[in-house]
Design brief:
Layout (H helix, E strand, L loop, with lengths): L1 H18 L2 H5 L13 H25 L16 H17 L4 H18 L1 H17 L21 H25 L1
Helix pairs in contact: 1-7, 3-4, 3-7, 4-5, 4-7, 5-6
């Protein structure tokens, strides 16, 4: 594990130095480029996603006193894993390439779109699914739709869930950045 952290730190510092020189990035060979396993932004995003989904898994157990494996991969709930993932990605790119760069701007806009969608379209779709499921539940047994499978209701997020996911993403990327600085 320490070797992997040192490789991430080394790739982070080599990326910092090569970001200022455009010729260094265009002339690098595939064998000298950093491994996907040392990609700080990718690791930060995946770590934030994993932490958010784990929190959902344990909070569902705390609330319902039963293990629900669907919470490890499902959408909806506290905190928003989508928000955590894209925020960690944007912040990690900001730390790595600079907050004034084009890469950070793209990642930030992506994060804002994902978070807006989570509280807007997806949240409303989930609420509509609740209403439709209730209508189908109240249909007479002989109705053709009475036996239809219920729609997924937990699709979107409330604003506090999105904010919590965003804060989790910022913290995850910041801790990763501190580890890289400590190892280099």
């Amino acid at each position: 594990m320490k070797r992997m952290l040192n490789e991430v730190a080394a790739s982070g510092s080599s990326i910092h130095s090569s970001a200022s020189s455009s010729t260094a990035s265009s002339s690098s060979s595939p064998s000298s480029s950093p491994s996907i396993f040392t990609n700080y932004a990718l690791i930060s995003a995946l770590a934030a996603f994993t932490i958010a989904q784990s929190i959902k898994f344990f909070t569902s157990w705390y609330k319902e006193r039963r293990w629900d494996l669907k919470r490890l991969v499902g959408s909806g709930g506290m905190p928003s894993s989508h928000s955590a993932t894209v925020t960690a990605l944007a912040v990690a790119i900001g730390f790595q390439d600079g907050f004034r760069g084009t890469s950070f701007a793209i990642a930030l806009i992506l994060a804002l779109v994902v978070m807006y969608d989570a509280t807007g379209v997806r949240l409303q779709a989930g609420r509509q699914a609740e209403v439709l499921n209730q209508i189908v539940y109240e249909l007479p047994a002989e109705h053709p739709l009475a036996e239809s499978r219920p729609l997924r209701e937990l699709l979107g997020h409330t604003p506090p869930q999105v904010i919590a996911g965003g804060l989790l993403g910022i913290i995850t990327a910041s801790v990763g950045h501190m580890i890289i600085l400590a190892c280099s």
